[in-house]
Amino acid sequence: SPLLEDNPDINDILIFPRADFRGPSGWLRFARWRADLKHHATPDLILDFQGLLRTGLVAGAFRGVPVCGLSDAREGSRFFQTRTVQVSSSAHAVERYLALAASLGAEIGGAPVFNLPAGRAPDAVLPAAPFVALHPISRGRHKSLSPEAVLAFCRTVEHPVVLVGRGTVNFASTPANIVNLLDRTSLPELIWLLHRAAFIVSVDSGPMHLAAAATDRLLGIHTWSDPCRVGPYRPGAHVWKGGEIFPALDPASSSAPTTVPGAHDTEMMARWLRPRITTA
Predict the structure, then answer these.
(1) pLDDT of residue 267
(2) Using alpha carbons only, what angle is made at residue 194 by residues 17 and 8, rounded to the nearest 5 degrees?
(3) What is the reported pTM?
(4) Which of 264, 182, 180, 255 is nearest to 222 (CA)?
(5) pLDDT at position 172 over 80
(6) Quick check: 279 pLDDT over 60?
(7) pLDDT at 173 > cutoff 80
(8) Residue 174's pLDDT band (cuts 50, 70, 90)
(9) How far apart (Å, rounded) are the C-alpha atoms in residues 77 and 71?
């Protein structure tokens, strides 16, 4: 929800309190929350972009209200749809979502505009010189950088590096150019850092997409995921896959081999990055 603060296109936000539904009695608490929804919202139309069981159940709480969703919806959520928009599984996620809006008459044209808030400065001492924001950890399997790969990048890039995002990295010794903010920033603080970084390097994860919403000074790191389906949706950004660096959305990146970057790969990324930090 902090991503939607002061968004000019949104009138109101209804929070899904996922943490409240954990534990053995979570389904009972969810059922009570779902039954109470009609007292908090009276929609005329529901668009289910996510297409999961929980979004289908939430949509189904408003009986008689049309529900539009995508053909690649999962977990049985299509049973709650009254209108299904056909999309290609090979299309980028942003284009699939835009197709849902277009099916209802929205005019789709030009590059998407992502209205992120300004964020808030973290309570940390940051480098005075232009810095690189490096997000090395992902919950996705085989997506994270090893400590050795992180160290190799930081030693080669020759600029201050601020580590951001969730997770931890254990270093035997930490180079002087690293400011480690892993697990030490809120979402608004992360957004503030992404807005101000001279360049951002991120594994395939949520913060990578936040970075793409903020700037084209981005290198996304992909191991097994397809950059043309889930990579940064930003002209001017780049992706690493299979030992090569491609422009974002370059079809050639889809066929690049699946590899997990090691220290020699992150050193290559750092050398590629150095002149771009100078001109950023």
Answers:
(1) 96
(2) 60
(3) 0.88
(4) 255
(5) no
(6) no
(7) no
(8) confident
(9) 10
Mean pLDDT of the chain: 91
Nearest residue to 216 via CA among 242, 197, 244: 197
Q: Residue 198's pLDDT is what?
A: 94
Amino acid at 115: N
- Residue 171 pLDDT greater than 80, yes or no: no
**Average pLDDT rounded to a whole number, residues 31-38:** 90
Round to whole Å and give the CA distance between 61 and 31: 10
* Two tokens, residue 236: 């001017």
Which tokens hold the place of 127?
A: 């480098």
CA distance 115 to 117: 7
| 119 C-beta neighbours (distance < 10 Å), count | 23
11 C-beta neighbours (distance < 10 Å), count: 6
Counting Cα atoms < 13 Å in the Cβ hemisphere of 249 gives 13
Instruction: Give mean pLDDT, residues 44-55.
Output: 92
Q: Judge whether residue 111 has pLDDT over 90.
A: no
Note whether 221 and 261 are within 8 A (CB): yes
Q: How far apart are CA 80 and CA 75, in angstroms?
A: 11
